[in-house]
Every structure is written in structure tokens, then in C-alpha cells.
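Anyone else keep sequences and C-alpha cells together like this?

Example one:
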Amino acid sequence: MSKIVISHPTGNTNVRSVIHVLHNNGILDTFHTCISCFKNSYLYYLSYIFKDIKRREFVYSIKNKTQTYPIKELSRIICQKLHLTIFTTHETGIFCIDNVYKDLDKKVSTYIKDKKTIHSIYAYEDGAYETFKTAKKNGIICLYDIPSIYWRAKQEILKKERQCNPKWISTFSGLNDSVNKFKRKDFEIEYSDTIFIASTYAKDCLKKYYPKQLPPIHVIPYGFPTINIQREYIPFKGRKIRALYVGALTQNKGLSYLFESIQGLEEHIELTVIGKGNINGCPVLKEALKKVNYIPSLPHDEVLQCMAEHDVFIFPSLFEGFGLVITEAMSQGTPVITTERTCAPDLITHDKDGWIVKAGESAPIRELLEKFIQHPEILQTVGKEAMKTASKRPWSCYENELIASIKTTLSIA
């Protein structure tokens, strides 16, 4: 029986689905991560104090197949809590997220070096370089998952945005990545045998900007969370339309266009923003947040609840490999306005279960908001359609499509 090793430093929602389906199909060798938390373990009880650990809880059935390397990631979390930024500085800090990825990459590379039973390795962007090099030497097939858009496409978008919105430069993420980091990304692609991507937009970016020949690419959109069948829609009479944004406070997400779109409409629309960012380093962002309901952070279950309490979710991102908040909002019956540079073209039918607008512009968003002010009932109608769409693609759909692609790639019956 073919066995697959999978590695990821944190194990987010989509990673958990991959682990789940590999384990259920009897082809999971081991899952390698930094911190894992299982019920009744000492970390499980510690997680009541440290929420960061609680997010690393996994199903008990994979406990014996999980290997952890916690030192650098625990150190990173502690340094963040204590505001010891010198140790977490981008790429150079000893406990920065880049070094967490690199450390895990080296550990997994060592693990697979002399293992004869491993057929393939499933690894993620920025954490596959050493692993894939060792895999190639040992005849192990490299399955590569890219959650974001290709770096060359991202740099071109940010370069243009820098000229259009210089006041927001301090919020841009990705502009300061080193040449070596970009080279590692390209080497990971070069070493891979198959690539998995979650949106057609991300695939198109890779095909357009990657300078060499690409291996086969499989586009498999992620699933929707469980739908909120208890969602209640509150009549609009006597109240404002409640709009919501959830995400990092960076111009990568098109924040300036969000704030521009509601200017002058404050009498009719109330905007809530949830997320963290370089607020003190960006005066224009700091000023914009004074005019809205700002919440720095909420637990994930409370974010979903907040989505269900709003009328429309606005996510004007300049680029996304997918955009999980889109599917989360739709699962709560909250219709989404987002851009064509996300998963939206794969999942949303414009003007039926959401709206797709052109990235980098505020006018299309504003036009929709003005339409809602005149006809607020549209939001409930489209919100219900969004929930219907969400109900048709649970995470099990993603898992089934992924395992079918993996089995085909590896020639597993």
C-alpha cells in the first residue's frame, strides 16, 4: 500500500481535510507539524489558557501518526505575546514564521530520507524545498499545494497598487520578501510532480507568470463550513444596512476601496471591520477605522456568528489563492461582494448568490451599496441563495475530489 507523508506548520482547515481523507483511505504515513493538541493531553488542558494552542487541536484518530517539532513555533508564539519583535522580524528573526517553515521542512526531509515505505510527500508552499530535494533523490513523488497566488503575479499587482495608493504602502504584505525566498518558491514548483490549487484565478496566475514548464495542475476549490440553518433575517425598516469586512488590515485586501465605497453613505450603511494590521504605521488606515465599528480580533466561532448578524460581507481583495472568509460568510446566509481575483468565479453566480466586481475599484462596490439602499430586500434573497450554494459543497466534496486526483496521480486503485 502506498503511503503519503504530509507536512504543515499549523494545520489549518484545508490541511485538516487533506489529513482526514488520507487517513480514512488508509494511505497516511504520518502528519508532521509544529504543535498538535489532542483531547486529554497536557496541551489540551493548557489550551484553555493559550488560545493559540487550542487552534492546533486535531482529531484523536491521527494522534499515533502525528509527529511534532514545537520549539521554534512555541518560541514564536511566546515572542509575539511578549512583543519581542526582534526575534520575529520578517525572514531574519530567529523565530520568524519563515524560519518556522524552514525548520519543519528540514525535519521532514530527514524523516523521509531512509524510509522505504513512503510513496509520496504532500507539502505546502514555503515548506517543501528541503523535503522535495530529498524526495527526488529517493524516488518519492512530490505533491505540492499552493494556497496563495504565484509570487510574480502578486509582485506585479502590488507594484501597480503602490503607485495608485502610496499612502497605504506601510500596510502592504509581500513587498519585502527576499530574492532567496522567491527562489525557494520557484525551486519548490520545479521539484513538484503535481500541483494542487484551490481556485482558477490562482492557476491562471501560475500559468501566466511561471517562466518554466509546469507539472499537471489540479484546481480543487475548498469546501463550505456547515450552513447556519438558524439564520434569521431582520427587517430593514428603521435601521441601517450592516456591512462587514473580516481579514488582515492590508491594502492587499483592497481596504482603501472598501472605505471609499461607503464614503457619504454612512447615514444608510454601518460598517464593521474585524482584523489586525499596521494601524499606527498607516495614518490613513487609522483615520478610516475611527469612522467604523472596529474589532481587532474574535474567536472563529464568534466571527461566524458576527457574519450571521450582518446583511452583506464585503471582501474587495486585490488577489487571493482562495479566500476562506467568502465561503464562511456564504455559509451563514450572508451575501458577499468580492472580486474576480478570488475563488468567487469558481463558486459564485453574479447577482444570484453573490456579486463579483472588478478588483482595484471602489465604484462597482458603491453602485451595489446604493442599489441595496433602495432595495434592501435583495440582500435577504441573495443571502438565502448563498446558503443554498454553500449547502451543495461541504468539505467532504473537497476531500472526495482531492483523493480522486491523488489516486489518479499515484496510480492507486
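And example two:
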Amino acid sequence: MSVFRDILRSWKAPRTIVRGLLAQGQREDRAIAYLMIGCLLIFIAQLPRLARTAHLEDIGLDRLVAYEFLAWLIVWPLAFYGLAALSHLAAKLLGGRGDWFSARLALFWALLAATPAALLYGLTTGLIGPGPQAALTGSIWLLGLAWIWISGLIEAETQEAAL
């Protein structure tokens, strides 16, 4: 199935999608692609907000974009690797049977699957600015990310670790 359809289906049945992704075998290249594409799309989602900030505060847009690019394409991917490792360790303490890869895949896929809401949030903050609308769309994004990630992690940790 296409990635786009899987993203849409992840909002309804994330465990099914993660189960299918895990059935494809340990493909680290695919997992890092999900992570990097998700981070790139979130970076793109930040551009309207950055343009608004640069205009209203008379700051150079190029500098804001450069910092945001560095954060989303260098720093955040490393942080997500650490977060995936911590989530796997926490799952192990709770009796999880998955492996490191399955925990990474669950988080990286959730990040990619939640990007439509991130793009909506970026448009909202760029066009309307801070306020209840931005808070609502930001909440939808974060709750969607948490829902897809936790559901996917449960699925990943209930499967036996591949040897």
C-alpha cells in the first residue's frame, strides 16, 4: 500500500499499519527515511510561522530559516533516536518483547504520519498567529502524534524480537 494511504489509515488504525511495516522486515533505510521525511515536512510546516515572525519583528528570514533547518534536520533526528531508545527501555521494564528497531520504527512512523496535522498547525500559526486556533491545531498535532506512536509502540513491543 502507498505511504500516503498508510498515513491516512494511521489516524484510525495505527497498530495495523505498524504491524504491516514490521512484517516487511528490518529495513533501517526505510525507518530513517520516515524520520528524515517527517522532519523535513515539519521544517516546511514552520516556514509560514518564520515568515510571520520575520515580518512582524523585523528579523532576517534567512537566519530564522537556517536555525530551524539545523534544528529539524540535525538536532531533532538525533533526539528522536534517543527518545525511541528510552521508549524501548521503558517498554522492556513493562514486559515488552520487541527490539530496538521496532521501537524506532513506531516513533519514526508516528512522526511521519502526524505531519499533515503539523502542516495545518504551521499554516495556522503563519496566517492567524498565536491564539486559540493555533493552540487547537497544535493540540491535534501532538495528540495525533502521541496516539499513533503509543499505539504503534504497543504493537511493536507485543511482537517477538527478530533475531
